[in-house]
Amino acid sequence: QQTQGSSLGDIDDRLTMRGLYLLCLGLLAPVIEMTSMKDCGHGYLKIGSQCVDEDECDFENPICGDHAVCTNTNGSYYCNCKPGYQTYPRTFNFTLSSSKRCRDIDECSEVKDLCGPNSKCNNFPGSYFCTCKPGFKPSNDKKIFNATQGVKCHDINECEYERCGENATCHNTSGSFYCTCDPGYRLESGPIHFTNGSCKQLQCDAFLNESSTMQVPVELEQTLAKLRNRCLELSKRNGNMEPVHKDLLQILLDAIDRFLSDGSLNNNRKVTALLSMIEHALKLLGYLLQDNITKKSVQTYVTMLVNRSEVAPDGPLVLSASDIQLQSDWATAAGDSYLGIATVSLLSYTNLHTLVNNYFHWLETQQAEKFKINSRVVTVVVTNPHTANLKKPIILTFSHLEVPVGNQTCVFWDSNLDGGAWSSSGCTVVKSSNNHTVCSCTHLSSFAVLMALYEQEDIFELQLITWVGLSLSLVCLFISILTFGLIRSIQSTRTTIHLHLCISLFIADLIFLTGITQTENQVGCAFVAGLLHYFFLAAFCWMCLEGVQLFRMVVLVFNTTLRPLYMIAGGYGVPALIVAVSAAVHAKGYGTRRHCWLSLDDGFIWSFFGPVCVIIVVNAIFFLITVWKLAEKFSSLSQDLSKLHKIKTFTITAIAQLCVLGTMWIFGCFQFDEGMLALSFLFTILNSLQGVLVFTMHCLLSRQVRDEYIKILRCICEPQKRTYTEFSTNQFSKSQVSGTMSHTGESHI
What we know:
The structure is a single chain. The protein is of the alpha+beta class and 749 residues long. It has 6 domains: 2-40; 56-105, Laminin (Ribbon), CATH 2.10.25.10; 110-155, Laminin (Ribbon), CATH 2.10.25.10; 168-200, no CATH class; 202-452, Chondroitinase Ac, Chain A, domain 3 (Sandwich); 468-748, Rhopdopsin 7-helix transmembrane proteins (Up-down Bundle), CATH 1.20.1070. It is built from 18 helices and 27 strands. It is elongated, with a radius of gyration of 56 Å.
C-alpha cells in the first residue's frame, strides 16, 4: 500500500507540471508573435513571411492636414504645404506635429506694394489678387490681376467726359476729380468742390428789378445800376474775386452814407427801396466772401461771417455790430438746401432811426399808443433763401438809446404794409431792462426796438372843449327832458321820441364825461364802454324812429301814431340786442388801455359804426321819400298848407339833427389817426355841443315851446299876480291846446 501511494503521488506531480507548462506556453505565444512582426521595422507591415512598406498617406484622415501634400517614402512619409500656405517657422519635408501646421500666407502683408502703385492687394485663403483703386484703370483692361503679370494702374481722366455741367470747370486729380463754378456763378447744390451739382448765375438782375418795381430816387437808381454792373463783371473774371466783393461792399456803404446824410429818405417807399437794395447786396456779397469781414463807415457798421465746408455747418453763432448782438445757429444761416457756403451779415445804422421814427400807424391801429424808436436799426441777412418762417427764431439784443419810460416792442420793417411800415408780427420781447431789450423773431428783415411813450396826453384845448361843451350839453338836455316830459300842451308821439332821444344822449354824455378815462379797473372800464355803446346806439335808434314818424305823417292819412311798445322795442330793444351779441362774440373788445370805449382790434369798433351807418342810410331814405311827398302835397291846392308847413319844419329839423350827429361820428372814425388833429377838434366840438344843438332845434326854435317858457318865466317873475292871471292862463292854455289840435293835429302825430 505504501508503494501504491507513492506511485499515485508521482502521477499527480507530473500532471501539475504539465499544466503549468501549457499555461506558460499560452501566455508567451502573443509575445513571440509580436516579436516576430517587429522584425519588419517601423513603417512596414509583415504580410505572411514578408515585410511590406506601409503607405501613411493613404489613411482615411489626411495625416498632413487640409492645406498640405503628403509624400510616402519607403518605410516613412513627409509633408509639404500647398502653394499659398507655410509653416511658422517655414520648413519643408516635415512630419505633422502640433507646431508644424500649414497656415495661409498673407502676401499683401508680407510684401509691401505687392501689386504696385495705385492698386489694392486683396488676400484670400491660399492666394491673393490685385485691383486698381477707384479713379484708376489697369493697363491690361482686366479688373483682376497679380503682381507677376506686370500690370500697371493708370489714372482715369474724368474730365474727358461731361461731368460738371454748364458754367462749371472740371479739375482732374490723381484718382479723382472735382468741379468748381465759373466766376459769376454759384452752386445750386453741393459743396465748394463738388462732383454732382449745377451752377446758377448770380442774381445780378435783382438790383435792376428793385428799381423797376417801385419808384425810387434817381441817386438810388444809379447806385442800383452800379451794383448790377459790378455783379455782371464777376461772370467775366477768371481769377480772384476778392477785390470785386470788397469793391461792391464799398459801393454799398458809400451809398448808405449818402442817403442817410442828405435827407433824401423822406417817405416810406424810399426807405423800403434802400433796405431791399441792402439786403440784395449783402446776400450777393455773402456768396463771394472767402473770410470773415468787419467794416465801418460814417453811417454804418457791418460784420459778415462766412463758413465754407464740404458738409452743412451746425452749431451756434454770435455776431455783434455796434450796440446790437445777434444769436442764431449755422443751420438757420445755411437752410435746408446747403449751397456749400453759409454767411451771416449784420449791418447796424448810425442814425437811420431818426429818419424812420414814424410809420407806426399799423401798430397804433391795434393799440392807441405813441411810439418812439429806442435802438439803432439793424439789418440781418443770411444765405438761406427761405427766411419768412424760420424753424428756430433768432435772438437780437438791442442797447437802448435812452432809458425807457414805457413798454418796449420789438418790430421789423414790413415792405408789404402800404409801401413800408413798422410791424411787430413774428417778433416778441423776451426780456427788457433799463439798458437792453432782447427780441425773438421768426423771420429776417430790418429790426428795431420801439419804446411806448407815456400815454399820449390829450391836448388842453380838446379837454377844455370837452368839459365845457359836455357840461353845457348836460344842462340843455336836462331842460329838454323836463320840457318834453312835463309840458302837456306839446305832448305827442314826436315829443315822446325827442324825450327818449334826450334821455339817451344825457346818460351817454354823463357817462362819457365821468367815466371815459377810468381805465384803472378793467371790469369797470368794460362796463362803462358797454353803457356808452348802448346809449349812443339808442340815440341813433330814436333818431331813426323820428324819421319813420315823419314818413307816416306825410304818407299815411289815418293812424299816423306809433304804438309806445313798438317805440320802446325799437329805441331800447335793438341797441340792447346789438350790445348783447357784441359782448358775447368779443367781450374783450370793451375797454382799451387809454379809454373806456370800443377796442380797435379785430374791427370791433364796427359793432358801433356798422349799425350807425345802417341807421343813417335808412333815415336818409325815409327823409328823401318824405321830402318828395311834401313837394307833391305843396303842389296840390287842396291840402292844408299850415299843417304842411309845420311838417316841413319838423322834417328840416330832423334832417339837420341827423346831419349833425351823423357827421360827428364820421369825424369820430378818424379820432385815433395820427395827423388828424383838425378832425379831432370837429368831433370834440360836435360831441360836446350835441345837447345844445338838440335843445336849440327842438325847443328854442319851436314857437309853442317858447310860449310855454315865457309863461313859466312870468309865473316865476310875477308870483303876486298869480290869482289874477290864473283864470286867463288856464283859458289861454285851453285855447292853445284846442287850436293845436284843430289846426295841426299834432297830438295825434
